[in-house]
């Protein structure tokens, strides 16, 4: 099969979170199985150009109709760790992708509407005929709309779309201006409830809703989150749309790229280790302490890696730092905040804790350091308010770093409480789970984990090994996505 992924991120060249990992990891898995995969991305100024091999111009003067005129683009081609990627560079005063950031600009909806249109123009003008166009999140929600309303009549009649939602919270809203810009026009038509009108704001078009309505199949990133989005609050207003389209909606758990996340071969950690050489993990703990100037101590090291925002349960993350200190454990945080208030708050904490030999807060995005933290920590906390899938707990498991998670979204599908899980045998359990969003719930789970570390080190080791034995690679999700592609291909 020939699959084109269209997305706003692809690790490691441009990554703000799990979306980037998924686009890369899934593409790799599909290629390993003999399928042809190409990835279409914007050409951002802030990409890791050192991670692209053989970047060259692949298509000049791509004419993308925009309002009543057109924007010309150059399309570059390069390889990101073996994956063939096309990067679209528009030449206009809008400077859509030269903003020094991936998201957060005032005109994000226009930037990504343009990208969606340009990606389809690129496929059409370069005569690419993929079987499947797989697009992701609100940024590419307009792709199926444009495909079925415009491009189907211009050479892309047989292409089918799979649309994956990684985060329902950000849906992409606009007014009618986007219709004029993209050539969809006809506001009455698109503002119908059955098409793109936001379910709550009658004056807004909702990109993600358009993606759901027009795609041939819609997935989200774990079975539990599919349920939460459909029936609970985490659809952020799109529950009814999912209900109407339930026959083409499902949850597929993300995978982890075990070539990137594998303590046996990880280039970023000083001591490689495996289940059989699990003691070498201790050496990484020592290396991590040395790197972050933490003291050598006979206590566990707990970490948090992730975006610092409300979704991630930032108040509980903050509490965990102080509770770890109270329990004499060490704590390492690697995180970045996009919200100014949270950013300030954690910079203040960082200053305050600067001389503490048991705590290190690293504020910013640091891929290399994240590997060492996964390898060096004993425990990883993921106290999210909601979590569509969550990769950090799965990476933690791979590195023998036991997760302490709140039972929500994909965390509930991947971590099974050592003491209380009812559905897994003791030998299949792999971490600690709590339910409520209050501090006591977190503390009680941390207490159990720290207690096991101190009092029953052999049991702790066993739990580490049980976690490492889990297969959260792309093997199973790869099969699931291929089934969906096959299913929609013959529609
Ligand atoms: P998200 O909601 O951000 O997509 P996920 O758990 O699905 O969360 O994925 C997070 C990914 O981003 C993981 O690969 C994690 O290691 C990485 N990550 C998050 N924050 C940072 C950071 N500050 N530095 C380095 N890597 C990070």
TrEMBL record:
Keyword Glycosyltransferase: yes
Reaction it catalyzes: [(1->4)-alpha-D-glucosyl](n) + ADP-alpha-D-glucose = [(1->4)-alpha-D-glucosyl](n+1) + ADP + H(+)
UniProt superkingdom: Bacteria
EC nos: 2.4.1.21
GO molecular function, one term: alpha-1,4-glucan glucosyltransferase (ADP-glucose donor) activity
InterPro entries: Glyco_trans_1 (IPR001296), GS/SS (IPR011835), Starch_synth_cat_dom (IPR013534)
Associated pathway: Glycan biosynthesis; glycogen biosynthesis
Binding site for ADP-alpha-D-glucose: 15
Domain (Glycosyl transferase family): residue spans on this chain: 294-450
Alphabetic keyword roster: Glycogen biosynthesis, Glycosyltransferase, Transferase
Ranges of residues in domain Starch synthase catalytic: 3-242
Alphabetical GO biological process terms: glycogen biosynthetic process
Gene3D superfamilies in the cross-refs: Glycogen Phosphorylase B
Pfam family, any one: Glyco_transf_5
Family as reported in the entry's similarity comment: Belongs to the glycosyltransferase 1 family. Bacterial/plant glycogen synthase subfamily.
Function noted in UniProt: Synthesizes alpha-1,4-glucan chains using ADP-glucose.
Cross-referenced PANTHER family: GLYCOGEN SYNTHASE 2-RELATED, PTHR46083
The protein's name in its UniProt record: Glycogen synthase
Organism from which the protein derives: Pegethrix bostrychoides GSE-TBD4-15B
């Amino acid at each position: 099969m020939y699959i084109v992924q269209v997305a706003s991120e692809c690790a490691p060249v441009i990554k703000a979170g799990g979306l980037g990992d998924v686009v890369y990891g899934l593409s790799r898995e599909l290629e390993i199985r003999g399928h042809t995969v190409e990835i279409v991305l914007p050409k951002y100024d802030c990409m890791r150009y050192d991670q692209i091999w053989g970047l060259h111009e692949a298509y000049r003067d791509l004419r993308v109709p925009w309002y009543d005129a057109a924007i010309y683009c150059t399309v570059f081609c390069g390889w990101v760790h073996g994956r063939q990627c096309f990067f679209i560079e528009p030449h206009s005063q809008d400077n859509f992708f030269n903003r020094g950031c991936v998201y957060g600009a005032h005109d994000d909806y226009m930037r990504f509407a343009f990208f969606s249109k340009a990606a389809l123009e690129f496929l059409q003008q370069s005569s690419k005929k993929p079987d499947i166009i797989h697009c992701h999140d609100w940024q590419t929600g307009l792709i199926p709309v444009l495909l079925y309303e415009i491009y189907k009549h211009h050479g892309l009649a047989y292409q089918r779309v799979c649309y994956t939602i990684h985060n329902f919270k950000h849906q992409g809203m606009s007014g009618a201006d986007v219709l004029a810009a993209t050539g969809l026009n006809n506001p009455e038509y698109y503002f119908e409830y059955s098409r793109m009108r936001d379910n709550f704001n009658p004056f807004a078009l909702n990109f993600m809703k358009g993606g759901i309505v027009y795609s041939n199949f819609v997935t989200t990133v774990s079975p539990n989150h599919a349920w939460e989005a459909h029936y609970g609050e985490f659809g952020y207003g799109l529950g009814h749309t999912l209900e109407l389209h339930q026959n083409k909606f499902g949850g597929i758990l993300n995978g982890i790229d075990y070539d990137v996340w594998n303590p046996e071969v990880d280039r970023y950690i000083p001591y490689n280790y495996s289940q059989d050489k699990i003691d070498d993990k201790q050496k990484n703990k020592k290396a991590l302490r040395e790197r972050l100037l933490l003291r050598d101590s006979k206590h566990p090291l707990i970490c948090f890696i992730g975006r610092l925002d409300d979704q991630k349960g930032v108040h509980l993350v903050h509490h965990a730092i102080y509770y770890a200190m109270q329990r004499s454990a060490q704590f390492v945080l690697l995180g970045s905040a996009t919200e100014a208030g949270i950013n300030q708050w954690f910079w203040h904490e960082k200053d305050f804790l600067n001389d503490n030999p048991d705590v290190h807060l690293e504020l910013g995005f640091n891929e290399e350091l994240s590997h060492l933290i996964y390898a060096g920590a004993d425990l990883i906390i993921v106290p999210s308010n909601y979590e569509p899938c969550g990769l950090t707990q799965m990476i933690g498991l791979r590195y023998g770093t036991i997760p302490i998670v709140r039972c929500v979204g994909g965390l509930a599908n991947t971590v099974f409480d050592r003491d209380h899980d009812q559905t897994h045998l003791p030998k299949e359990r792999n971490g600690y789970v709590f339910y409520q969003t209050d501090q006591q719930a977190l503390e009680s789970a941390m207490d159990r984990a720290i207690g096991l570390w101190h009092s029953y080190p052999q049991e702790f080791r066993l739990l580490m090994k049980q976690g490492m034995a889990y297969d959260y690679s792309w093997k199973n999700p790869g099969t699931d996505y291929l089934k969906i592609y096959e299913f929609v291909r013959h529609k």
